[in-house]
Amino acid sequence: MTIEYKGVALVTGASRGIGRAIALRLARDGFDIVVNYAGNAAKAQETAQAVEALGRKALAVQADVADADAVARLFEAAQQAFGRIDVVVNSAGVMPMAQISPDKLEDFDRVIATNLRGSFLVLGQAAQHLKEGGRIIALSTSVIAKSFPGYGPYIASKAGTEGLVHVLANELRGRGITVNAVAPGPVGTELFLNGKSDEQIAQIGKMAPLERIGEPDEIAAAVSFLAGPDGAWVNSQVVRVNGGFA
Asked: Which amino acids are annotated catalytic?
């Protein structure tokens, strides 16, 4: 069965984890995919090949989302390759654990640069390139509601991202472009699992009424809804996909 062509989706941080799951889900939905990655070219190519195996076109483009010139080149490469951009999903992010302490400023600056400055740059470029009917989706986090020790820089960056989503939705008034965020709870990715013991992972999973951590495909399904026709009337919202975690 041939899937109807839906347009072009640009997904940052698409070489692995949630970003990869989003890229593959949108490919299944009928989108050609721009696979952005920061440094792991091999993993990005794997994602691109997986997209192509689904019958869609793919282009892997390296760009650090914290770098304004690199983000501009990313969007220009997408525009030149496909002639259009219909959906932008900003999934790139980092999550080092750091206490709120003067000696953790380097960690704070790194998280803010990638997660918040990156969101500002990617959303800003998306606003310039998308036409009527376009969809902009940023990844936030449900841990905002928990205020766990060590998550200060990460929570600050994602709370800022949610603020940008609401403001951009208003700035795009009259253009027919929706701007939303998806806020996952704990999800079984390298980003989440790194540095945690099996006991810690199980304990965190028990916090949600569904008593498990999520899967990347479950987050991708929410993005698919917002990017598809059924999400056309959802705008300036944060969709918390977390099994009741928060």
From this structure: 154
